[in-house]
## 1
Amino acid sequence: MDRRDFLKLSAATVGAATVSGTAGAQTLPDWIPNPFGPMPPQWYDGDVKQVYSYCENCFWKCGIQVSVEGGKVRKVDGYAANPKSRGMLCPRGQGAPTQTYDPDRLKRPLIRIEGTERGEGQYREATWDEAFDYIAEKMFKIRDEYGTEATAWFGHGTGDKWFASYLPGAWGSPNAAKPSVSLCTGPRETASQYTFGRGISGHEQIDWAETDYILLIGHHIGEDTHNTQLQDFSLALKRGAKLVVVDPRFSTAAAKAKDWLPIKPGTDTALLLAFMNVLIEENLYDPEYIEKYTLGFEQLANHVTQYTPEWAAEITDIPASTIRRIVREMGEHAPRAVIPVGRHVVWYGNDTQRNRALYLVNALLGNYGKPGGYYFCDAPLVEEYPHPELPLAPSSGGCGGTTTEVEAESPFRDSVDRGLFYGTATAVQEMIPPMITGEPYPIKGLFSYGVNLFHSIPMVERTKEALRNLDLYVAIDVLPMEHVMWADVILPEATYLERYDDLLLQSYKEPFIAARFPAVEAMYDTKPGWWIAKELGNKLGLGEFFPWEDMEDYLDTRLRSIGSNLEEMRTQGTIVRRGRPYFEDYERFNRNPLGTPSGKIELYSERFAAAGHNPMPVYTPPMDVPEGHYRLLYGRSPMHTFARTHNNAVLMDQMSENEVWISTHEAETLGIHQGEYIWVEGEDGTREGPVKARVTERIRNDCIYMVHGFGHKAPLMRLANGRGASDTHLQSRYTLDPISGGAGLRNNFVRLVPGAPHPHHPPIKDMVADRSPV
Amino acid sequence: MTRYAMAIDLAACVGCSACSVACTMENDVPVGNHRLWIRNTEIGTFPNLTVEFRPEQCLHCENPPCVPVCPTGCCFVTDEGIVDIDSKKCIACGACIAACPYDARSMHPDGYVTKCDFCKHRLEEGKLPACVETCPTLCRSFGDLDDPNSAVSVAIRTADRVDVLRPEQGTGPNLYYLNAPASFGLTTTVGQVGTEEGAH
């Protein structure tokens, strides 16, 4: 009899007898044998092995130490010597092992059963060889009929190097994209390139340690929980830095701010223009900095004369006196006053211009390249593994990817969006229509690596229609997400705790190199992304581009180019380099970090003017909220990443569903009560729910808010399925940013309908107990 | 003497739950049980608002009500002030759970009571409790109250405001909350927050 059974028997009698015995502490005499036997040993008392890696439960990619005991990952901790964790870790990183041991994982390659439709989810098991043969045969057929460019490649995560850059380059398709660009950071990168001649990079290069005044505008520190950013933010506030938060919602960061400015959604550019107006009118800028580093100040000064605080107050709902006061405070603290650029910046379609405006305020504060402002950073240089030149340069860009103008003629056809945007072929949502219309030419094949097609790209019904039209759709993933169960071939990837990956070359204040070592062997018949790419490459006749024997050979060769090697890295995990954060670090060597044609910060952009865009930011009003509707705002929870972590039992135990935030005032009008389940209806027949209403003072009356990533419709993800609501499924429209190709997602409007049935989801703990692998 | 204590700076905490998940993984806490949880409370009316993000766990009281009610003596206080459980002797009667005014104890599915023990196995190795080590806001301090230079002593000494939960209970908590955001101090509701209530 084990302890649990014994207690079931004895609870009634023993419990009743002892609860009454509360007079004082008693001790069981030693002669009473312990009826349960010894307690099970704890993992930390066993033989614990430490393995270095970097986290991938979000894309901050913190350095980690993985504790392995009894062949199992037991715990993940931040790695103290890694600049992006400093020994600390967020809940998602801590909860990572639970994903590896998720019984709902994809376990072996699957091929859709002949005669069934995509989306029906009917599969047969296959060997890897069979799956690769199937894919190759279709790929050759598509190539012969439509060309190599007719296969598109979407990827997100470290392995996207293979599936959204390297393989498409080797195969010869310019139609490769990452959602991290046009559905996330694209506009800020384009704006940065055309203002400073540099990107922002995969993290935000804010000099937190030196800043005295922080103004966040639509930036949600504490909710996205980027580990070291949160550390730096927290330390800055502790040091006494002032914080102002501009947001339609009283965010977590707002709870730490001295001022919260509940701005009318979509009017940020007006506020930023008024900031410039006051900075210039009241001579709060540093003329020496402006003279030395910028171009076009006179034009900008003339341009912003019209944008007075009174003008902005009408638009933004923020009083003119408040605007003046905040700008004067910023001016007082400049250059150690900073407006950090956010991460997900595709809002209203004017996003490149809004981010330009944000950068120009920072330039007027004189903080770019100065302590307490934006620092400079470059990724450490490590040579590639020697390989033949790819027929086509990888084009998918990335969070910190390059933004280039249209390139010279190549033997390949342009990407389907080439020429439309000031970026490489990165507008993932623009690759969907060609799958339906065949214009400008057909896309008939699609690879999706770690991209949740139905929880990232707006207009889900359009995406489904596109998938139905394809000749081949391959999904590479860890979990049976809904979009995965539409694929013709499903390739199960090992989790990041089970695999090698390429080196992480991180631009940071202290640039560093981190390596990922497998902590445990891959479970089931899953394989690492690098292996899948190489084997598939061989089948596609691209073997020459994969000359390495395996990942150990690959990594060792790359590391030797900097005088290290794989074994050294195995004991070290991270190699930290020295950065050059400020102008002074470049000027000492007569170098200029600014990559614009003028070599200056371009307040006025000749290049935008020449292309017919506004050379200086202007305010474009957002679409009006239709009567009876609310603007749909969405964001992040610290316990979850995008739509990726919602089958992780430990994280779902922390947060198992999202809620719709609605103001107390509007809830009263609609008759919606706290905690009641409601429907959320979009404008084009979309409906989400039942989802819980959160009646709150923390939001304006003209918008509602929900955490992104819930509302999975994936029956094989048993914990995630059906819990909460999906913002993406309500985003039936988007407003295209004509400069960057970003998809502005905040011009979607919804109605709230009370009276949805209570879904009565079983508690996560009960589902965990009942779940065995299938 | 060593007298272990913890302090949590509410001005820094963002309620991210890193501490709670770290605790779960470190101590192999089953899903559904929590030794440590986060309570978020909205205070005020638009636009004059604040939010209290408050982690709660065992307070390792000086006068712990849970200890004298234990019929087997499995609940005890260590020399360092940790309110501890000898799980082997626990008969799962639940008396201590009922006695705790902070709801800090819960029943493990394997039939014994479980709660925060300041990660005493880590302390023995000279490490900090898992929640303290992982916190990305650095809001937690831990150490020896009898050492004026310990992190926890310094944090308490330099705080603008120091509170304990439910002081009227006379339990003498060794978990201190620093810089409570509300002018009137800590909010009064105490106890485990499940996901049904929606921590976020």
## 2
Amino acid sequence: MISSRSIVVRTGIRLASPLALVVAGYLFFAGHNQPGGGFAAGLVLGAVVALRAVVGLVTPRRASWILALGGTIAGLVAVAPIVAGHTLLDQVVVETTLPLLGKVKAGSALVFDLGVTILVVGLIVAVLEALDVYDLRSRTSRSVVQSDGARVDPARVAAQPTDTESIGAPDDAGIERGGTR
Amino acid sequence: MTVWLLLALHVTAVVGLAVGGRRLTSRYAVFGVAAIAPLITAIWVASRLTSDDPYVTSITWVGQLDLTIAFRVDELSALLTLIVSGIGALVFVYAMGYFGPTATGLAKFGATLLAFSTAMVGLVLADSVWTLFVFWELTSITSFLLVGHKHPDPATRYAARRALLITAAGGLVLLAGLLTVTSATVSGGSGSVGLRDLTPVGGTAGAIGAVLILVAAATKSAQVPFHVWLPGAMAAPTPVSAYLHSATMVKAGVILVLLLQPALAETGPWTPVGLAFGLGSMLWGAIGALRHRDAKLILAWGTVSQLGLMIALLAVGPGKATFAALSILVAHAIFKAALFMVVGEVDVRTGTRDITKLSGLARSMPIAFVVAVVSGASMAGVPPLLGFAAKEAAIEAGLKLDGAERVVLLGGVIVGSVFTVAYTLRFLIGVFGSRAPEADDADRPSDVAPRRSPITAVTVPLALGSVVGFVALTAVSNRVAAAVSLVDEKAATFELIRWPGLKAAFVISMAIVAAGSVLGAALARQTLRAPEPLGARSVDRLVDVVLSIAQRIARVQHGSLPLYVMTMCLVAASVAVPFVGDVDLDALVRWDEPMQAVLGVVVLVAAAATVSVGGRLAAALSLGAVGFGVAGLFVVQGAPDLALTQLLVETVIVVGFVIGFGRLGRSFPRVGVAWRPIRLAVAALVGIGVMTGLAASASRPSGTPPLDELTAQSVDTGGGNNIVNVILTDMRALDTFGEIIVLAVVAVGVVSLARAGRTTDDESATLPDEGAADLLRRAEPVSAGDRIGGTS
């Protein structure tokens, strides 16, 4: 796919990734007083992960672990106040003065939001895994070496859903499917 | 605090075993770890047993609904917890001997059994109605997992499903019953109704509540006609049967009836319905036990019978009958656990539980034989054992009644007890006796594997328990009386009597033993056709019908994406129908700002382009334009958070399209001629529906939004100036939590949908539903299936 054909896109995404991380971090912390928040930060991170996956850069894997981590963090924040004798999801706000940053105010909602962020990233990683993006990438980078037009990739044909859509498609995959039937 | 620490210890051990249990290679280590929490719990509650100062603790977890998790350790719950945890610890030791060195999956088994034990401890310690309900449901779920432990076997799966369907249905009935009772006792919020503070409920609500509670108890306690799950549950490994079907799971129903007796005993249906359940089960269970060949099924049916006796006694309570019921509950937990364990030992050491195949075990398994004789005698009500004293109390309770109740209860108890003696004798002769040498191959004594010391280490103390219980009868009697008095003050004056003298009750007792012995000896070698459980067919058919309806409903999942989308859109559009009348065209304004019109045109054009262009890439780009246009509308409307989220979602979707195009054709497939008008019609309907909904919503007088209030609240409690986010993460954090759980579920759904078509289906994953019921019936008399993996 894009990975082997366009070094520009690949390099661009690689360079943009740290920037996007900063943006995500900003959105995450800004959400308290300005537009942003955990969900938005998670979407930015997720988009970066998806782009990196498409061009074959290193990305987080194992969606189940990420989902579990996010759910656990949010769940712990939800239950923790009960142990302390408060009600479910009670908010605790802490104010301290940190070096460099000055006065910082943070609540337990921030940790809860972190759980939301991680879970959103986990969802996108799960979708990427489900769509076999990682396998697709390694396979295409191999098959493109042969020629640019007719890619022979049996696994990809097998993975195609058997609905009417791909039969009518003037795609090379459709021709191969005819052979396998 | 102690209760919480104990529960935390249970949960820690469950999680530890489930996660890291595979590293424990020895079964001694696995079950040793599992036994710790029940053992400590048992020791602690034993120390609270004589304390008349109840220990109460509770945590409010939803303040607005007044929902609490509340526990109480008083004389009643301490006694019940001692049974649950004490037998639990013994069962884990027993499991060390029951499973062989080659058994696999033990960590999972130990974790599930301990999870069940935790649920049961919570159930007996519960102090509020809803705490009881939560743990009640937890026992249903964990027992389902335990019964289905050997899930590669289709008969086991069927049995587990049957148990779950019946007990879960009972859980729903219980919910309805508890709601009826609590709404009648407490006005307004019924969040935390203490189980010891229930007041009598009268009238129609009381009558309905009584029937519902009794039905719920009958499903859990395997009463006729809901008993069909219990014999099937014998498919579980024997430690499960020894635990669930002697001391815990089936007792939950009895405990429920006991706890709700103060509220419902005065209602009309309580006594007749309870007596019908109880005596019916007592008789039919005993008849079933007389006819089976599988020793474990004999005990299972005997359990149905004994539970019937307890329910019947509670139904005629309060007073002596209640006292007798709790006495029998204690005695039954001890002797039935020992008997199940002996059957498991016989199975493990000989390879069968079929009493027509076993022979000569009295000589080759002497310790097990003595344990079985003592425990069996206690079950039959032979002096000088605990079971005798308890049954005496039951008969005396019957004698104290008058009128029809006396005749019915006494008659039922006497006939049921005669049968009990008979099946006990048949069990003992069948399992341990030597058979007459008539069949050529089976006349020699059964081959017996070496003794396993953990089994002996548990069964002998349990057998001694029946003896010691009689020796220390005064102590047992005092504990039972103190426990019962918390529910029923009148019961405090009664006691268990060691030597009643030649009174009517004793004469009846001895007559029962004599008649039962004659019947049992006569039937001992009779091989009667193993009975269909009464109503088993109809319940099985009900299960089949439920499952086939479920499958038929599942056929709605036809697998056609266009049809799914059309269905969803039509349903969404039809939501607007009730609001058609609200549309007020005069109240609508063209736009708040001219920019909205411009953006609206952009969205419209982009939408039109999306459906009219031929190529997929162009369609995706047009769709993106729609999204960005909508985001622009949000900005103009003054909702930057919404716009930001919309933009980011659009971005992720674009990346998704980039990935998706790798596996799709460049242009859309042609739609069939017949489909085109249908799709157009659906699209038009959806458009009209959404428009109507929006117009109706815009027509409503909006009033002033509570902006100031929200701002103040958000800065005050949430500490943030962005109201939207403070609402999301603080004020409505529970909603957000629910939403992210939905996200996680969506992720699981996407992954499994995408993988469903790819992996070849595992053969065992598809259930042969039609034949499973017959398979189960065929499998019932078979035994020696009690091992996990390849134990021998």
